Amino acid sequence: MSYVIGIDLGTSAVKAIMVSRSGMVIAEASRVYPLYQEQPGYREQQPEDWYQGTVDAVSELVMKTGVQVDEVEGLSFSGQMHGLVLLDEEHQVVRPAILWNDTRTTAECREIEEGLQDRLLDIAKNRALEGFMLPKLLWVKKHEPDRFAAAKVFLLPKDYVRYRLTGKLGIDLSDAAGTLLLDIIHREWSREIADKMGIPLELCPPILESSAEAGLLLPEAAEQMGLHDQVRVFAGGADNACGAIGAGIIKPGTAMCSIGTSGVMLAYEERVEADYRGRIHYFNHSVPEAYYVMGVTLAAGHSMQWFRDAFASELSFDELLAGIERVPPGANGLLFTPYLAGERTPHADANIRGSFIGLDSKHTRIQAARAVMEGITFSLRESLDMLRDSRKVIQEIVSIGGGAKNEAWLQMQADIFGVDIVRLEREQGPAMGAAILAAYGCGWFSTIEEAVSCFVKAVDRWHPDAERHAVYNGLYEIYIDIYQATKELNERLAPYRNLKDYE
Asked: What is the pLDDT of residue 272?
């Protein structure tokens, strides 16, 4: 027998799966690690926690399955995007990693916009947002000059773990696309952007295709994980690119709705000349010569997690959502905006915050829970509508993540989006995409498409209900007005957010 391992380095945990040649997941394991928030808007992690968590998760996989060491042929990665890891001359970590959901870099974003003007969208194809890599580099340069001077190369989270496993530096195209330093079309680092913003181009690591072999396991790492040091390690991809592969989004007409901590509406893009002018994200795919476009809701599943923790911490999610299908669309006149951590698409606004609109004393917890679900889904529809406005025809949407675990939510997605929603037989998200890249890299399949057809199977489908879709269209018109109606109020509230509790 032969196996590959897919590793998904997420924001809160690392997940590893072992997959056979037939696409069967024979085991999975995960390890959580802490998130550090020393100040409002700061979100950091220790790269060593990622590495140790990965080693422990893979070691558990090997022990669970009892496979022979020479039966594991390759492994690859999916990883949280945009996180900044700086290494010094000896390739030691210079400072804790600054994550994708860190919002400290608003001033640096304005600096990028002023310095590059339209050239940013011409070259990098994306707007300057707080979560991206380049603003973080400028922040460290400005606020921690000694650390910046010590840095000799940057990596993203999964690339750091891969470096620790192989001793080889590199970054794949799909993650490089999220740095704002990549020339998206020409697939190379942009000297123009780097020079204009005062970033040494030497900080940028070598670029690899997602399916490229990055090296073999170092003997020490192999021993720690219980693997052979001839295991082939492949570059891997950004979590959204790998999630798209793991959901079968590798051809026109299909889209993916992923509801995890954040929410993503993503579609395959084959038009090299497509130019969204920063309205939605435009990145290189992990499929060779392809791209994908996506919108992001920063606090999707996080909004549901917050609601449960704040109002029903004693309940499981199944208990919290029991009976939610009996609540009518609109939750009896209650709307929620999921702006708990600011918003990205279509409102690139780190200052906006969430709202319940229409709350009265008759509303119950289950109605409020439905409003939260609907608000998350409305936010993702805003991204879907932007894709449709660009003449993209979306025939079906594959739902993954937390939003695919509840059948009432799947029907809600069909009713709000107005298209069929598909659930997968074995939904492993980005970890499956990483496993597919490893299987393709090992030569099990002649194309990624062939690998996807073997590894990814649809099992259930939800059709939109015409009557509920019409009701949701009316509610959606109200929902999209809430942002402008509350924007100024949130700006006025901002100074009061960080007041300290009384002793």
From this structure: 63
d(CA 295, CA 386): 8
| Beta partners for residue 281, in sequence order | 294
Q: How many angstroms separate the CA atoms of 132 and 84, rounded?
A: 9
pLDDT for the residue 257 = 94
> pTM here?
0.86
Beta-strand pair 237-238/72-79: parallel
**Buried b / exposed e along 177-209 (16+ C-beta atoms within 10 A):** bbbbbbbbeeeebbeebbeebebeeebbbebbb
Q: Could you state, in chain order, the average pLDDT of each consecutive group of 10 residues for the chain (503 residues)? A: 94 94 93 92 95 97 90 96 96 96 92 95 92 96 97 97 97 96 95 97 96 96 94 95 92 89 88 71 90 90 94 93 95 97 84 95 96 97 89 88 90 97 87 96 94 91 97 98 96 88 84
**H or E element that contains 59:** helix 47-65
- Confidence at residue 271, expressed as pLDDT on a 0 to 100 scale: 66
**Does residue 329 have a cis peptide bond before it, meaning omega lies within 30 degrees of 0?**
no
Cα separations (Å) of 175 from 3, 37, 157, 371, 383?
25, 24, 10, 34, 21
Nearest to 479 by CA among 304, 345, 337: 337
Give the residue carrying structure tokens 């009896």: 332
108: alpha, beta or left, given left = phi > 0 and alpha = psi -120 to 50? alpha
CB atoms within 10 A of CB 497: 11
Distances (CA, A) of 258 to 122, 245, 247, 298: 28, 12, 10, 12
In one letter, which amino acid is 263? G
For 443-479, give one letter per residue: b (16+ CB within 10 A) or e: ebbeebeebbeebbeeeeebebeeebbeebeebbeeb
- Rounded CA-CA distance 102/113 in Å is 19
Whole-number pLDDT of residue 80:
94
Q: How far apart (Å, rounded) are the C-alpha atoms in residues 174 and 497?
A: 36
Q: Which segments of 200-262 are extended strands (E)?
A: 207-208, 213-216, 232-234, 237-238, 254-259
User: Residue 278: what pLDDT?
Assistant: 74
Separation in Å, CA 364 to CA 156, 333, 359, 369, 411: 43, 12, 10, 9, 22
Q: Which of 102, 175, 239, 415 is catalytic?
A: 239
pLDDT for position 499 = 84
Q: Report pLDDT for 338.
A: 96
- Which among 127, 145, 148, 155 is positioned nearest to 350, based on CA atoms? 127
Regarding beta strands 420-424 and 458-462, do their DSSP bridges make them parallel or antiparallel, or are they unpaired? Answer: antiparallel
- 239 is an active site residue: yes
